[in-house]
Structures are given as C-alpha cells and as structure tokens.
Amino acid sequence: MTANGVKASGNSRWNLRRNRDSIRAMNRADLTALTVKPDATVRAAIEAIDRSRRQIALVVDDTGRLVATVTDGDVRRGILRGVDLDGPVSQVMHTAPTTVTEGAPDAETRALIRARKLHHVPVLDAEGRPVDLATVEDLFGVTPKSTRVILMAGGLGTRLRPLTETIPKPMIDVGGRPLLEQIIGVFADQGFWRISISVNYRREMVQEHFGDGSAFGVSIDYIEEDRALGTAGALSLLKERPDEPFIVMNGDLLVSLQFSELLAFHREKRADGTLVVREYEQQVPYGVVRAEDGLMTGIEEKPVARHFVNGGIYVLSPRALDHVREGEPLDMPTLLTRLRDAGGRVGVYPLRDYWRDIGRIDDLEAARSDFEDIFRG
C-alpha cells in the first residue's frame, strides 16, 4: 500500500485506467527523443535527458518494452560514486520504475505522483511499451520553473525547546511530515524544483532526510554554515550566483502564498529586492486622549494601530548579492536597507494568504491545527 492507501503490484506497475483526453499526449518524436537502449552509455542517457528537457530518459529493449528509467538524480548520484560517463547506463538506471497503464484516470495518477513524490511517470501499453509520459506539468497544470529557492534552515530553534534539543526546528512534525518537507511540497506543487537549503544546527538530520531531493520531486543542494551568518549572510556561501531573481524564505514558515505572483510583482516593480509583509494589528486597551495646550482635542476608545511586519519571505535580484560580503554575518533587513541606501528599489508585497511563523510552542500547535483545514481541506 502507498501513503494514500492505493494498492500497487509487485513490479511497481499501477493497473489504472487513464483518461487520455485530459492529459496532453507526447508525440512519437518526443517519446523517441528520451529513449535509450540498455547497452547505451551514461553519457548517452544524459544527452537524452537534455534533448527531451523532461529530466528523464527511458531505457527500452529491442522490442520497445520499458526496462528502466534514468533521471537527473540517478545521474548525479552516479557521478558522486565515481561512475564513468562512458560506462554502461546500467550503472545508474532504476530497474523497477513506477509506471501506469494506458487509460488510467487522471485522479489516480495524480494520487500516485503525490504519494511517491514523483515528477513524471511512464505510461505503458498492454505490452509494456512506453506510449506517453505523465508529468506534474500535465496533471497539475504546473509549469516547471527555473527560479531558485533558498530555504533558511540553520537556526537553533531556542524558543521551541525542549523539542529542538534533539532535532532542528525545520524537522519538527507538522501534518504528519517535517515542516521543511511541507514547505518544499508547497514549492514543488507550484513548479519550483531548484531548492537550496542553508543548514547549520544538526545539519546531518536535514541532509540525510532530503538527500539530493529526487525522492521529493525536486533538486536540492546545501549551503553549509559553520557559524551563524544570518539570512542574508548565508547567501555569501552560494556556490553558484543566480542569474535571475530568486526566492529566499525562512524554514519555519507555513504559507499558502502563490510564489509566481510574488515574482511577477518583483519584476513589475523593477525591484532589486522585495519583502513579503503581513498586516499586524495592535489594539490599545484604553481610550486614547489627544490634547494640546492642556485641552482635550479628541478621544478615541481602544484604537487599533496597524503596521506592516516582515513576513520572512524575500525575492532578490542577482545584483543584490553585490552588497553581501563573504563570511559577514548579515540579516535580511540590513541587506535591504543597504540596497535602498545605494539607490536600489525595494518592493513591499502585502500577503493576504495564510501565514504562520512557527517560532514558539503555541505557534506550532496552531499550525498543526490549521494544517488540516488550510492544506488538506
């Protein structure tokens, strides 16, 4: 049984009926572009992956039957093991891929993709030959995005002790999974697959759980802090400078924000940096009296003051990194102030969607309660 209770056969093939009218079928040329033979080299599989732009290659035998798959993640793991790119593809291929049978209904295929955290599933005919490739893009209407997402997960979580004495805050359970996994799921569901995680405190727990991200339908690398550098300071450790606006978000937030809309706002404002803000209300519990020269000019009973507060989510353009000095502890408000003082444009994006900062025990309890209604309701 899978996580969602759907029964799978022993060879991981799902005997489902699929409504092909509602999912765009690949044409034969597209399908051929991503296939290789079992005697192909790893390099040939990489070329097929690049050629098809589907992040997967299908390994088929002489009769056209699927025998294995090779994904970006499989290749990366092989390279880390020292696999020769001119060696046989069998060194990196996955010989028990999850598949669906031609005609399987969309709803069940979507459930399968969610349960197994897949990005794509080969569709086979009755003879086991690939006839299509079901993808997140086709099934969920999501276009994969090149935007990089950087999640800050290195904090000590002091206010959540004793829970954080043994695990880092982003690994605390919310909705049956670690909080950070829920966050990554939100991004993956919206097509964001390039994830960097900044780690420090108990980093090995985060890295062992998520690995390279392939099990979660994304690609993950890590920014390793040996000392606390702050949300902006950690960006000085990026191995590769982004070439387009990128998202930075604290790893202790539960949000339902549409990130594409945030990016569109950032571009519309021609901003160097954008911060997401929440409206915070603060009520004075007394009547407020206004006076001048000893005389009352007005009185307001228990007025409410409204402020915009930092929501812990940002978009930065690459040039913002010019203001981050290597190894310098730096928080994001200071970086944004530097940008503004240097003549840069800093956008302010008011958030109307669900947002919860899980910084204290009562916040965690509220998030767990909210999760069922907001994210599963």
Describe this structure in words.
The protein is an alpha/beta fold and 377 residues long. The chain has two domains: 13-140, Roll (CBS-domain); 145-374, Spore Coat Polysaccharide Biosynthesis Protein SpsA, Chain A. Helices cover 26% and strands 29% of the residues. It contains eleven helices and 20 strands. The strands form six sheets. It has a seven-stranded mixed β-sheet with strand order 12-11-8-13-18-15-19. A four-stranded mixed β-sheet has the order 1-5-6-7. Strand 6 (120-124) and strand 7 form a beta hairpin. The longest helix is centred in the C-terminal third of the chain and has 14 residues, at 361-374. The protein is elongated and about 95 Å long.
Overall mean pLDDT stands at 81
What would you give as the CATH superfamily of the largest domain? Spore Coat Polysaccharide Biosynthesis Protein SpsA, Chain A
Largest sheet: spatial strand order? 12-11-8-13-18-15-19
Which CATH architecture of the largest domain is right?
A: Alpha-Beta Complex
Structural class: alpha/beta
What is the general shape?
A: elongated
How many H/I helical runs?
A: 11
What percentage of residues falls in helices of 4 or more residues? 25-40%
Query: How many strands, which pairing sense, and closed or not: the largest β-sheet?
Result: 7 strands, mixed
In percent, how much strand structure appears in the residues?
A: 25-35%
Q: Which segments are poorly predicted (pLDDT under 50) over 5 or more consecutive residues?
A: 1-24
* Rg computed from alpha carbons, rounded to a whole number of angstroms: 24 Å
- CATH topology of the largest domain, by name, is Spore Coat Polysaccharide Biosynthesis Protein SpsA, Chain A
Number of β-strand runs: 20
How many domains would you count in the coordinates? Answer: 2
What is the CATH domain class of the largest domain? Alpha Beta
Query: N- to C-terminal separation?
Result: 23 Å
